[in-house]
Amino acid sequence: MAKNKASNAFLWIIMLLLILGLGGFGLTNFGGSATTVAKVGDSEIVLEDYARALESQLRNYQRISGQALTIEQAQAIGLDQLALSQLVSERALENKVSEAGLSVGDENVSQQIVDTPAFQGLGGTFDRVNYEQALRQNGLTPAEYEERIRAGTTASILRTAVASGVQTPEAFIDVLFNFAREERDVTWARLTADDLEAPLGEPSDADLRAFYDENIDTFTQSETRVIDYALLTPDMIVDNIEVEESQLRELYDAAADTYNRPERRLVERLVFATEADAEAAKARIDAGDTTFADLLAERGLSLDDVDLGEVTESDLGDAATAVFGLSEPGVAGPAPSSLGPALFQMNAILAAQSTTFEEVRDELKAEAAADRARRIILDSRAQVEDLLAGGATPDVLAERTDMQFASIEWRADVTDGIAAYEDFRQAAATLQQGAFPEVTDLEDGGIAVLNLREVTPPQPIPFDEVSDEVVALWEEEQTGAALTEQADAAAERLRGGAEMAGLGLDLETDRGLGRSSFVEGTPPDFMDQVFDMDSGEIRVLSSTGEAWIVRLDTVTAPDPTTAEAQVLRGQFGAETSADLAQSLLAAFTQAVLNETEVDINPSAMNLINSAGR
Predict the structure, then answer these.
(1) What dotted CATH number matches 2-164+593-611?
(2) Using one digit for the tens of pLDDT, what is the confidence trace for 509-530?
(3) Which long-range contacts (CB under 8 A, 24 or more apart) does 281-284 make?
(4) What is the pLDDT averaged over residues 326-348?
(5) For residue 430, what are the contacts with CB-CB under 8 A and spacing of at least 6?
């Protein structure tokens, strides 16, 4: 319980300090204003609360996706509403515990504040001045902040009480285990165009035209965007960049440890309490009574626990002579280490490497020139932005800078030329006609400026241009239909008592298939179909001009008594218990919200949203 309280308080501290990062969005602490974003029962959510929650959502999104969002983008995917809903839920729980008269004592609140690193001085102890200054910067008084700590901690206790102790019923675990580990044996045959009993007839022009019309979505070209752009990449200017020999020498010297490496060895170290213990262990190894791995197992250690990785003589200190004295993999020691007497297992010898300047000169030159090209482009960015501010278009930029002008008819499936850049494709997809041109940064250090000249909506490709594709798809569909009809007839014979071996088809038999198994030569939904069948059932499948006859031979239930089964059942129990606990907490929170009056002030939210634009 104490741990939960402490972690909850720490979360509040982090959320409090996140407001400092809002400067990047043009936000400040609003001068300590108590403007209310929402009222939840008797509790309020003020501007600073919402700002911190929104910033937290933005940071989480960037951490997970690697992409920073603007406020507009965050609103488009609902992060602003998610931030608000979390705050409303939290306040509703706090309101509930307040109504119930639950609270934590002053001593608990005080201890959490004193233990918070953000409020400690240089000596590592609580500093009242730091504490009050941090709160003042975020528009809070000590009383307000301490009340938040108290309410948040009490709400955390309530959440823990609701979600704790949830156990998954054994019957449910049985269902999950049987579902996951059940195995099936099948016999199947694949019918392809070679198995057609009669060749397909030649399609008439009317047949093809009708097929074209019925499948017009397949023959429709997606939206096309005609984009004019000015482009400058490192590759476009790198050949004109001269790199001085002295600079190349400096680069080589800076990477000397990479180009010239002494002999290294892959080593693991096992430390003993005394020299006598180490010698006794080495004697057992030398006598063949044990191995280094056995010694680790006796101590409950893994190779990861004792792995030193690649080491040089200087890394090993006094043990270097023993380890580097080995001419082949083996165990050396006992030898001294920083942790005590130890045995060293040497697993491999990595020879010394020496790469001369001349050998890497061209590589260094290319690297230096590319780096210089990226810097030149970065420096030229300000000039490009100034020209854009003056009304320059991509073609004008090409006249006044080193950028090159071109146009592209871009669609989502076009990935050639400039469309090979992911940054370009993202910008092109959201580009609006008449929008003010902006500089788009490309992943290789280049820049581009895009202007949307024309948008052609999706439209059918003329029949004459796709006639060959129409014929191919018509034949595929007709072949699949004919093979499916043949397979259905064969399946009926099997259901009437015929043997699969008498079908004259190549039969395949697969045993012990699990739900995640893959069987080559089968349709994408093969395993889903197999696990939807009853024992002895015969089913016909079809896909992409082929057909399959499948018979489910045997259903094998898993053995729940094996060691693996016990581990797996335990995992199912733990995971489902956690899921049930979260669902229970969510249901409880929703029930609390249903009986709590919530008033939202959209105009107050807009103060934050508009400030971040």
Answers:
(1) 1.10.4030.10
(2) 999 999 999 999 999 999 999 9
(3) 281/343, 282/331, 282/333, 282/334, 282/343
(4) 90
(5) none
SS3 198: coil
pLDDT band at 538 (very low <50, low <70, confident <90, very high): very high
263-351 belongs to CATH 3.30.70.330 = no
User: CA-CA distance, 229 to 127, in Å (whole number)?
Assistant: 57
Q: How confident is the model at residue 220 (pLDDT cuts 50, 70, 90)?
A: very high
pLDDT value for 21:
37
Which residues, at least 6 apart from 250, have a Cβ–Cβ distance to it below 8 Å? none
- Model confidence at 138, pLDDT cuts 50, 70, 90, reads low
Burial of residue 343 (number of CB atoms within 10 Å: 0-12, 13-18, 19+): buried
User: Domain ranges in the chain?
Assistant: 2-164+593-611, 183-216+467-556, 224-242+368-457, 263-351
Structure tokens at 417: 């030329």
Q: Does domain 224-242+368-457 have CATH number 3.10.50?
A: yes
Q: Same topology for domains 2-164+593-611 and 224-242+368-457, yes or no? A: no
Q: Is the separation of the CB atoms in 187 and 42 below 8 Å?
A: no
Contact 447, 439 (CB under 8 A): yes
